[in-house]
Each structure stands twice: as C-alpha cells, then as structure tokens.
Specification:
With about 425 residues, the protein is of the alpha/beta class. It is built from 15 helices and 15 strands. Strand 10, helix 9 and strand 11 form a beta-alpha-beta unit. Helix 1 crosses helix 15 and helix 8 packs across helix 10. The longest helix is centred in the C-terminal third of the chain and has 20 residues. The radius of gyration is 23 Å and the shape is globular. The chain starts with a strand and ends with a helix. Keywords: Transferase. Pfam families: Glycos_transf_1. GO terms for molecular function: glycosyltransferase activity.
Length: about 425
C-alpha cells in the first residue's frame, strides 16, 4: 500500500497533525510519503513539489521584455488591483483565513502522485487547484479536514462572531454582500469539481466537523468518517511538575494557567475573553504562562510569564506538565492539537463548549467546559477550577487520553479505511 499525503506546509497546527499521521503510518510499516508545497523541515519521506513548466518561446520572452520596458518608462501603466486583492483589502480584520479554490500547480504531474495507490489530501489551500486536480485525478482520495475550508466558499471557519463587547460577550458577525457573492461563486466551482471524481472519502477529526461536513452542499453525497488525531505518547506524557517548573523558571507556589498566545489578534482564538476574565479575577496567587511570540498585548497582566515560541515537542510537554491547567478560549475549533497534548501530559483543560473541544473535555473529569461563550462564564470556570483543582488526577487524565488518542490508534484507523477503499477499487 503506497500512500501519498498532500499538505501545503510542514509547519503549523494542521501540518503537525498531518505529519503525526505520517509518522504513525511509517511505524505501522506503511509506505507513506508526504508531498508539500513548502518544505522547511528535514523529515523522512517528505518532499517539496516541483512544477515542471514548459519553456517559454522566443516570442513570449521578447514580448515579456518589451512589456516590462514599456512599464518602466511609463508608457504602460501598472495593472490595477485584482478582484482577489480588492476582496482581501476590504475584508474585516481579525477574521480567519480565506482561500480561493484555484492554484497554478498540478499535483497530478508529480511522480509521487503517479506512483501512489491512494491520495490523502490534508490542508491544501493555495496548493490544490480544484478544477484541474479532480478533472485529472485517477486515484482514490481520502480528504482529511483540518477546518471548514474544503466545503465552504473560502472561509476556513464560518465565523459567527466578530469581536467582544464591553460586557465580555460576543458580537454577532454580519456577512457583507461581497463576501456572500464571492463565497457562492467558489462553492459552485467546488461542487462541479468534486463531481469529476467518483471515489472520495472524507475524514473529520471531530464529531462537530464530521456533522457540518455531512450537511454541506459540497460533501453531502460523500462518505464522511470520524477519526480523531493521534499524539505521540512517548513525547507527550506527564512529567514531574517541580522539575518542569525548575527548567522553565516558573514559581512553585503559584497556580499556573497555560495559554498558547500566537494569535491574540485572531477573533476565533478568543484571547480577548481570557484577558477580560483574568482582569476580573484579580488573584495574586495565579500566574498566566504564555507560549508563543512575545506580544505587547500581554503587558497588561501583572503576573505573567512569557516563555516565547516553543518548537521542540519535548520542551512543550514540559510546559504542559509545569501548568496546573491549560486554557483554550477558542470560539470555534476542530480538534485542537494543544488540548490533546495537554491531556496526554495529564494537565486538565478549560474551554468553551464549542466544536471538537466538547469531544475531548469531560466536565470535572479532565477539565471544565464553560457554560457559554463569555468572559463571565470563563471566569466562573477558572474560579471553580481553583476550588477543585486537587480533585483532578493527572495520571488518570493522561491514561484516558492515551487510550483514545495514541498515535497507533489513529494510524490503524486510517490503514483500515485505506484498505477498505483499495479493496473496493479492485472489485
């Protein structure tokens, strides 16, 4: 069985999840390879896509040089902004990514594509050209969703909120006419492209994403499976808290709240709700420990420790182990790697009752779910945790997570799905 995993990047949340599956497949003896648009890491069996372009004719080269010269001397004006550039220019700040379903790249031209038995698409924005790929594709497809983009008109998350009001409650988002028109156009293109391929199976890591994919206009006729992410339990495991705090220079006599702070300007990440909740808390015995790029937006906290960006997974497991609780204030999310990592390290998690977060957090067993999306509800959960934190058993939390999210469990579920699909191809 030759599996080709396709992803745009090898860095980021979706990339981590994708590469962990690749690692798990290799451990199970599967011939897995990864095709990337942008390759930055030196990982086994991962390759960067190289498009072989046809050489330009002499006429095309002369034409290009002439046009460039005329632009330089001012006889030809520079081209105006494209419709896409104008769209992004007027898009509201703080929203998640928006990706169009077009690309100049042809993934089916890759030798890796040609030798594979099955293609496993992952996060392929700005890499996959829907129309040409599905028109030319001759292989069975498994498409692993990491967000909503494959079945939306461009949004990576169909955000229903945009910002926070003075009381700490979400502000409803209203789509502009332009957003709706562009989305509808992209949806039509995606629907038509999907019809070219007869053997596509969708995989969603969370029950929430599985259901919304099933209900979407693009994927409603396809089989949608739910396979959670896998985590390497040898790396993400409970470590001695005092030892972990010594390494990171974190006080041992404080309650430590861990937060990943890379995207504090992204509304969906919900940082504003945590910020307001902590300001209302006013507890000198609580320290906020932030992982991510150091940001002036965190300066307003008196008790804060900024650890900076952590790329090493072993060091990240130490950060989870050093904390008493991990807080994820996302307003909408799939199955966040950070929550899985925290639970594997035995650290309880607090979050809003949204998306795949509800798959992972069992109230008062391995964390707390806030009653609603608001700073007040988050504050109440934080205060409740301070009262009952001794009731959480780190070893039990880690064991339960390992039994559900260990790397081998995910890999075996995919191997079973691949085998079933290939068997049908033979028949």
């Amino acid at each position: 069985m030759k599996v080709l995993i396709v992803n745009t990047f090898d860095k980021g949340g979706a990339a981590n999840a994708c590469l962990r599956l690749h690692e798990g497949l290799l451990q199970q003896g599967v011939e897995s390879k990864v095709l990337l648009k942008h390759k930055q890491k030196s990982l086994q069996q991962t390759y960067e896509f190289n498009q072989i372009n046809k050489p330009k004719s002499k006429f095309q080269l002369i034409k290009h040089k002439c046009l460039s010269f005329l632009r330089v001397i001012g006889l030809i004006k520079k081209s105006k902004e494209t419709p896409k550039q104008q769209f992004f220019k007027h898009r509201q700040l703080g929203l998640e990514l928006f990706s169009f379903p077009e690309s100049s790249l042809d993934i089916t031209s890759s030798p890796l594509y040609k030798e594979a038995d099955i293609i496993n698409l992952h996060w392929v924005s700005n890499f996959l050209d829907y129309d040409s790929f599905f028109r030319n594709n001759t292989k069975p497809i498994v498409w692993t969703l990491h967000d909503m983009n494959p079945f939306t008109g461009g949004e990576h998350y169909l955000e229903t909120f945009l910002g926070i009001d003075a009381s700490g409650n979400p502000i409803p988002r209203i789509l502009t006419n332009e957003e709706q028109l562009v989305a509808n156009k992209n949806l039509i293109l995606k629907q038509k492209a999907i019809e070219y391929s007869s053997n596509i199976n969708i995989v969603a890591p969370s029950k929430w994403l599985c259901q919304v994919a099933k209900n979407s206009t693009v994927f409603k006729t396809l089989d949608v499976h739910c396979i959670p992410y896998g985590i390497n339990s040898e790396i993400f495991q409970p470590r001695d808290q005092n030892y972990s705090r010594n390494i990171l220079n974190i006080p041992k006599d404080k309650t430590v709240i861990l937060f990943v702070a890379d995207s504090i300007d992204n509304h969906r990440k919900g940082y504003a709700y945590l910020k307001k909740a902590l300001k209302m808390m006013q507890n000198d015995d609580v320290v906020l420990c932030a992982v991510g790029s150091k940001n002036s937006g965190l300066d307003s906290f008196k008790n804060i420790i900024e650890l900076g960006t952590i790329n090493d997974e072993l060091l990240m497991s130490i950060a989870y182990s050093a904390a008493d609780v991990f807080v994820i204030p996302s307003l909408m999310d799939n199955l966040p790697n950070t929550v899985l990592e925290s639970l594997m390290c035995g650290t309880p998690v607090i979050g809003f009752p949204v998306g795949g977060i509800t798959d992972m957090i069992k109230n008062e067993q391995n964390g707390l779910l806030a009653k609603s999306i608001s700073s007040q509800s988050l504050l109440e959960s934080l205060e409740q945790f301070l009262k009952i934190k001794s009731s959480f058993n780190n070893a039990e939390i880690s064991l339960a997570a390992k039994e559900k999210y260990d790397l081998s469990i995910q890999a075996n579920a995919y191997i079973k799905l691949y085998s079933e699909i290939l068997k049908k191809e033979i028949l």
